[in-house]
Automatic annotation (TrEMBL):
Binding residues for Zn(2+): 109, 113, 132
Localisation per UniProt entry: Cell membrane
Source organism per UniProt: Chionoecetes opilio (Atlantic snow crab)
GO cellular component, one term: plasma membrane
Family the entry assigns: Belongs to the peptidase M1 family.
Designated name of the protein: glutamyl aminopeptidase
Subunit note: Homodimer; disulfide-linked.
Catalytic activity: Release of N-terminal glutamate (and to a lesser extent aspartate) from a peptide
Main location: membrane
Cofactor(s) this protein cannot do without: Zn(2+)
Lineage, broadest ranks: Eukaryota, Metazoa, Ecdysozoa, Arthropoda, Crustacea
Domain of life, source organism: Eukaryota
Amino acid sequence: MVTYLACFIVCDFQYVETNTKAVKPFRVYAHAGPDQLSLALGVDVLNYFEEYFKVEYPLPKQDMIAIPDFISGAMEHWGLITYRETNLLYDDLGSSSYNKQRVAAVVAHELAHMWFGNLVTLEWWDDLWLNEGFASYIEYKGVANYEKDWDMGDGLGRAAHLPPKRAARNHPDEITEIFDTISYSKVEERMETERLTKLWVFAPKRELFEWSHRDHK
Ligand SMILES: [Zn+2]
């Protein structure tokens, strides 16, 4: 596992829990009490991605935690995904339907990383656009499977014409710089045709398939 995915948290937050289809514990932690939406949504998306990638979720448990004043929107630490509270907690009385879709999209995006990004990882940061672009594409499939009435589509066509962006990145500041809209949208831009879409989805799935058949278990 690459080091940026490691995470340990000591807290007295409350949690709700369920099991995945493969009977692994799935928990959602929050300071003021977690809600059931992100739990139901999360386990549904995880089960769906297991089928979609044809690779079982590899860790013995999955936790998601809402952290007050978390600096990023969310971070795909492996098995312990961290979120800004507004991206994980949905309040039936105080939140809008947009908030609900936003929670669903962020949760699906981070869970997609459990496979693509974490299980198979890019060699270096200059290909970050592939990691984030693919997760941004796959999140729509996860959300659409959970809630068909939202008509989320497949996320294609969101991106306008974006310039190519690839350069050597070595300093931490240079790496932080590339976590921008272009990195997240570039794959979607490239999936302009059905043929390209199939190719882009096939390549990461193939990578996961080969991983699952290597002698490492
Ligand atoms: Zn991401």
